[in-house]
Amino acid sequence: xxxIITEKIFRYEISDGKRKERVxxxxxxxxxxxxxxxxxxxxxxxLVTANGKVIKSNYKVTPGDEIVFTLPCAxxxxxxxxxxxxxxxxxxxxxxxxxxxxxxxxxxPSIGHYTGTLVNALLFHKQNLSDLNDPTTRPGIVHRIxxxxxxxxxxxxxxxxxxxxxxxxSAHTIEREYQAVxxxxxxxxxxxxxxxxxxxxxxxxxxxxxxxxxxxxxxxYEVIEEFExxxxxxxxxxxxxxxxxxxxxxxxxxxxxxDEVYGGSVIRCGDQLPKIKSRVENLLEIMPRQALHAKTLGxxxxxxxxxxxxxxxxxxxxxxxIEKLRI
Length: 327
Description:
Blueprint: E1 3-13, E2 21-22, H1 23-30, H2 36-44, E3 48-50, E4 53-54, E5 60-61, E6 66-77, E7 89-92, E8 96-101, H3 118-125, E9 150-156, H4 159-170, E10 175-183, E11 190-199, E12 207-210, E13 215-226, E14 230-237, H5 244-251, H6 273-286, E15 292-300, E16 307-311, H7 316-326
Parallel strand pairs: 9-15
Antiparallel strand pairs: 1-6, 2-5, 3-4, 3-6, 7-8, 8-9, 10-14, 10-15, 11-12, 11-13, 13-14, 15-16
Helix pairs in contact: 1-2
């Protein structure tokens, strides 16, 4: 299979009010999957400029600067290649599939993840997949869930099926229930969160709640079970924004247990901390990813017009976490 070399250019205009900080720190916080060490190596190679001039790692970005970072990407396949990766098929007919995705599996190839994805697995196991999205890297993919979120995904085998399913997602008529273990006890045991969600100005890899910027997001929640310092919560999506549940729970003071990106790996036990610190640390070792599972998926079959609902059990790591929290 032919491969192509790519590069990605990141361009930042530093806005007024931005505090001065080292350029390596700024880029490490702005570029997805970047580390400060890697950024420093790229700076040493002359791949970062400020206002058209090559700079060093200790350069301080200031308002009015234009920072340009040219990231050379590793060779990638022109198309995703089939790989013998097992998949858990919950349902399948001639038009579509329901997959139960494990945590840790990326849905489709992207920078840094060209192999070992669900798409690579689908290409190995299935001959016919829709190609309405990018046919080279996203065949069959109607929607996504995060790498470290487990649960149910819809896969389309042809373009008509894909189009009709996508229309249901756009109309917000797909039934989606997630379950999560969140920090703290909720004052209101049942409610909803409505906000706009936009990229964080502090860190462009993250999203944050906003009153009027970004895309509108709407989440319903209900507490299923309470523990000493955490809660098992059911969440239903009215909209489907990137990181929506993670942002809404974090933004309301209840980040998902183990969610390192949105504050869920920070121990939140208040005055109880000295007594139970070691116990909580052990629980975080059990759950080194966000405790979030896409549990239920309901939709109208694009061809039979029958309403179908599928449910999946919580994965073993979440079940063990809940068992330990009950003690």
